[in-house]
Q: What sequence folds into this?
């Protein structure tokens, strides 16, 4: 009894010019019967052996390999083959998300040209950045951070596809600084709920967009930090004596917590009184224990700390957005 249907594996794949790839016929129902292989369009599109071994032509393009039941050609299946000059990979999540939660599972898929799609090795850049299975299923760690998931071609390990993963248990602000890239700041919503609510509200309103960092600690004999958040920097020259006095038109109360001025910590700048902070903030470019308890730390850089360490006066915040 002939099979009721037939499939071919892989059904979509890629191969480098002149290379070979093995196809397999998968009959459904009935008993196994002889099958015939052919390249749609003839030998100019490559050749295929009686066992399903396809040899790519020396011209790039997308071709089809067909297999059918020898005694009943109506029972057939077709595989699509992309023939390329070399291997290339792109990687995308099947579900687009802005921020991944601790322990969240995310299936990634890699689109690959020039080799068998199954010949991919998956990895995560940071040993603490979670794990990814051979099938590309990523499990986020229980540590906030910005990690890279990579798909690497086994045939040509120089060819990779990358996807950067933002993992956090709380909201994150993505601050894009002109010429420096995106800096990701995790909000300490549990430890400093009122301060983070204020910063998030200002961010959502576009308050920081177009403003400049106006104060660099070492210029004044202070520890290494970079300060921004003054709306006056949008309209006044940065050497104007008023720079550093601007705010949102209100102040917020001091919020005591146990967070420290670690490398990458973000804290509220203020005047002489505890309850005088408004919109100005600073990022620690070194550990500053002398500031602990005197200023409210409300977050930490978890992505692109290298860029945060290069921030100086006159660097411009193009945009700041909340990654929900």
A:
């Amino acid at each position: 009894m002939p099979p009721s249907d037939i499939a071919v594996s892989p059904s979509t794949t890629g191969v480098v010019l002149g290379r070979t790839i093995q196809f397999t016929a998968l009959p459904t129902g009935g008993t196994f019967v002889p099958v015939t292989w052919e390249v749609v369009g003839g030998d100019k599109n490559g050749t295929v052996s009686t066992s399903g071994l396809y040899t790519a032509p020396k011209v790039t393009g997308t071709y089809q390999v067909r297999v059918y039941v020898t005694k009943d050609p109506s029972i057939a299946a077709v595989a699509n083959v992309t023939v390329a000059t070399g291997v290339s990979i792109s990687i995308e999540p099947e579900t687009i998300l802005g921020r991944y939660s601790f322990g969240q599972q995310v299936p990634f898929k890699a689109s690959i040209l020039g080799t068998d799609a199954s010949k991919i090795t998956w990895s995560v850049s940071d040993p603490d950045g979670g794990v990814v299975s051979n099938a590309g299923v990523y499990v986020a760690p229980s540590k906030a951070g910005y990690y890279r998931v990579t798909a690497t071609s086994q045939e040509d390990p120089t060819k990779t596809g990358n996807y950067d993963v933002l993992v956090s248990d709380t909201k994150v602000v993505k601050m894009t600084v002109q010429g420096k890239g995106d800096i990701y700041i995790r909000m300490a919503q549990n430890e400093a709920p009122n301060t983070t609510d204020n910063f998030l509200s200002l961010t959502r309103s576009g308050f920081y967009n177009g403003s400049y960092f106006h104060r660099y600690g070492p210029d004044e004999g202070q520890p290494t930090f970079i300060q921004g958040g003054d709306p006056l920097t949008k309209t006044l020259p940065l050497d104007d004596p008023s720079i550093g006095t601007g705010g949102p038109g209100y102040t917020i109360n001091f919020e005591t917590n146990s967070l420290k001025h670690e490398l990458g910590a973000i804290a509220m700048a203020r005047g002489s009184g505890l309850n005088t902070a408004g919109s100005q903030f600073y990022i620690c470019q070194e550990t500053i224990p002398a500031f602990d308890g005197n200023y409210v730390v409300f977050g930490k850089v978890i992505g692109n700390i290298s860029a945060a360490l290069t921030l100086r006066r006159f660097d411009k915040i193009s945009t700041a957005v909340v990654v929900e």
